[in-house]
């Protein structure tokens, strides 16, 4: 603190500004040494510059909110029997009349849970609520979190367009046998149709949802449709046909 200054100037209350200096690379230094035997060794020092890496922050666009699931709506044109319970979860009110349960009064307001229940490690609740309970009786008492209209007779949904799919088919025939295998799982036997003709088999198979498979298979030998039969299994449809061909009984596996 006692070292006197070395420069003269005017007094000021501002701190002097010091420009930051860029790091200077160290110069290349080549050292050459000669030994007593006349051998020469050269050492080189390469310049290195060091600099701090500038961190970058990746900014991502905010995620789009998940659209809410479409809820079923009540169809006022469908008559409802008095005493019918509202189908919405957590409501539990019974239908009285169109004026009371479907009008504009307090009894027409439905307080329900729009999302399904959840059971996890003993706790019970709804996906739309934060409350969780342990006892099942307490779970039944959890009040709804959303208000809307009662649901006594849901509106019929519009029929979706059928989706025709392609199933794997294995088909081969010999002079004595015919084998056709169609790999189809979970066939709806109430709607599916198998029609056997003399020289063809028509398949019209329905599956869950709107999926459907249609195929006509040509046979290389006449069969007896009246003596033929078929049966549905979980993974395939088996059709038994009897063919007048070299006096042999034929089986067609589908």
Automatic annotation (TrEMBL):
Region (Disordered): 1-83
Protein's UniProt keywords contain Zinc: yes
Domain CS: 164-254
Annotated organism of origin: Somion occarium
Keywords: Metal-binding, Repeat, Zinc
Xref: InterPro entries: CHORD_dom, CHRD1, CS_dom, HSP20-like_chaperone
The keyword Protein biosynthesis is assigned to this record: no
Name of the protein in its database record: Cysteine and histidine-rich domain-containing protein 1
Polar residues bias locations: 27-51
PROSITE patterns from the UniProt entry: CHORD (PS51401), CS (PS51203)
